[in-house]
Amino acid sequence: MRFLALSILFVSFSTMAACPNLAGTYTTCTSGTGNVSGGTTVTQSTVGSVTTYEVTSKDEDMGTEVTETIIADGKARSASQTDEDTGVVITVSTKASCMANALMYEASVVAQGQTFANVVTHVTKNGSQLTTHTTGESMGTTINETEICQ
Fold this sequence. Notes:
By secondary structure, the chain is mostly beta strands. 9% of the residues lie in helices and 64% in strands. It has an 8-stranded antiparallel beta sheet, with no helix packed on it. The longest helix is centred in the N-terminal third of the chain and has 14 residues. The protein is globular, with a radius of gyration of 17 Å.
C-alpha cells in the first residue's frame, strides 16, 4: 500500500515538473545522418501549470514547412485521418510531459490495426543548443538518433 501511494505521488509530481525553456530559432541542425535541411523554430507559452510548445520545422529540399503543437500536460491525445487515395485510416497517438528539465514526447502511428511507429523523444536545451534524442521503432527499423540544432 505504501509503495502504491509513493508511486502515485511520484507520477503526480513528474507530470507537474517544470518544463524547460526550449524557445528559439535554430538554423543549423546536424544529426547522425548529416545536416538536416531547413531549420526549427520553437515558441512556448505556459498557462497555469501547462506548457505548450509550437514547433515549426522547415525542409528546404522538399519545400515544406510543418508546425506541430505539443501540450506538455501528461495527457494522451489521439487523432485519426483517412488517406484520400487508399482509404486507410491512420491514427497518431501522442503524450508529452516534462521531467528533469526535459520535454518527453511519446508518439505512435497505427494504420489498419498495425503499429508502424512507436518512438520516444527527449528534448533539452543547453545555452543556445537544442538537443533532440529519439529512440524507438519505425516501420520495423530501430531508431536511436540524436539531432543537435543551434
